[in-house]
Write a structure and sequence with these properties.
Blueprint (H helix, E strand, L loop, with lengths): L9 H11 L2 E8 L2 E8 L13 E4 L10 H8 L8 E4 L27 H16 L6 E6 L1 H12 L4 E7 L20 H14 L2 H11 L8 H9 L6 H10 L8 H7 L3 E7 L7 H11 L8 E7 L5 H4 L1 H12 L16 E6 L2 E7 L7 H5 L1
Parallel strand pairs: 3-4, 3-5, 5-6, 6-7, 7-8
Antiparallel strand pairs: 1-2, 2-4, 8-10, 9-10
Length: 370
């Protein structure tokens, strides 16, 4: 396989630079660790004053680069014009301790790469960077990013205006026995983590995983594969992966219980061809939030011909849904996503995407029992 970035066509590189234009990379300190984040650059006179910002939360194994398509689409929408951030979790993307040494450096010793660590990172980032002059934020999370968004909102409801869950995973943290997950790793977890990590970061494995995660093979390319691979090439990846495998869940409470207790509006936006976070899970999440006594408004949109990563596979549809959702903060009870129609169709380079709203989704027997 010829998978180096240099082998890509000039057209692909030109398209990538167009997507990245208007997105500024920055650094921030979290507990002495260097954290990478990005922000959409608006003209100061065009950015709306006092508008609630947006924080995009990534899935596992990627960095803020996985949000570039969505950030670009939202930047092109003049109804948004508010700060839009994306951030790499510690031990993901370009966010790593200084001088990593396979879990043995002074900056790594005692470090636990857990959901709790990432939740604390998000909360501190909100307080110090995102909300320095604003009151609340809109959290938009894909996969584990959706999981973290729910935990953040349950811990700090004073910081969160609304949540959008893009194929959120309801489970995170295996909590494997005989080790807490705090670095450095004992010999057996270290061996297991190293072995598995080297397998999953192989480019052929990355392609296999993405082929399963995406409904359209043409929606990802060697650029994304190399970006994911590049996240693993430092001296801290093996130790981080072992710590993640052994890390505990973020909370003792059931994810669906947390959803039912949230003090904000929630938008579920799920790709229907996801092999892992299937429609039955989205329906269960939606049902857990619906209450006759709730003063909050929750909506569920389905995306057809879309897999596990709607932010990257269906950026036009997601941008439209988010723009409508966020710009109608005070009128969500009567909000229409499709101007009176039942659904809307979007044309991406790799295929046609349909978006539809249903409160009750037909779920086949096999999905229900599995």
């Amino acid at each position: 396989l010829c998978l180096s970035i240099e082998s890509l066509s000039s057209n692909t590189n030109n398209d990538l630079s167009k997507i990245n234009s208007g997105i500024e990379a920055k650094k921030w300190d979290f507990r002495g660790h260097s954290i990478n984040y990005e922000i959409v650059k608006w003209d100061e006179e065009n950015e709306r004053e006092n508008s609630s910002p947006i924080l995009l939360l990534n899935g596992f194994g990627v960095g803020s680069f996985h949000q570039h398509r969505l950030m670009s689409e939202m930047k092109n929408n003049h109804d948004v014009q508010r700060p839009i951030y994306a951030m790499d979790y510690l031990g993901q993307g370009k966010s790593w301790p200084i001088d990593c040494d396979d879990g043995k450096s002074p900056n790594e010793i005692g470090l636990l790469y857990s959901a709790d660590t990432w939740v604390d990172q998000i909360i501190q980032f909100l307080e110090e960077i995102v909300l320095s002059k604003k009151k609340k934020v809109h959290l938009v999370g894909n996969s584990v990013g959706g999981h973290l968004a729910v935990v953040v909102a349950s811990k700090r409801p004073d910081l969160v205006e609304s949540i959008c869950l893009l194929n959120a995973t309801p489970v995170w943290g295996l909590n494997l026995p005989f080790w807490s997950g705090k670095l450095p790793a004992p010999s057996i977890p270290k061996f297991i983590g190293r072995t598995l990590f080297d397998r999953i970061r192989d480019l052929r494995t990355i392609e296999t995983y993405l082929s399963a995660a995406y409904s359209n093979r043409e929606a990802f390319d060697t650029v994304l594969m190399n970006q994911i691979r590049s996240c693993t090439e430092g001296k801290g990846g093996h130790a981080a992966f072992a710590s993640i495998l052994w890390s505990p869940p973020a909370t003792k409470e059931n994810f669906y219980q947390l959803l039912s207790q949230l003090e904000c509006d929630v938008l579920l936006l799920f790709g229907q061809n996801d092999p892992w976070c299937k429609p039955v899970l989205a329906q269960k999440m939606f049902d857990s939030m619906i209450s006759k006594t709730s003063r909050h408004h929750h909506r569920y949109l389905q995306l057809f011909n879309v897999g596990h990563c709607p932010n990257h596979e269906a950026p036009k549809a997601v941008a439209k849904a988010l723009t409508t959702w966020i710009s109608n903060e005070k009128n969500r009870s009567k909000l229409s996503f499709f101007d009176g129609k039942k659904e809307e169709t979007f044309i991406e380079e790799w295929g046609e995407i349909s978006m539809r709203e249903d409160e009750n989704v037909e779920i086949n027997f096999l999905d229900r029992v599995t």
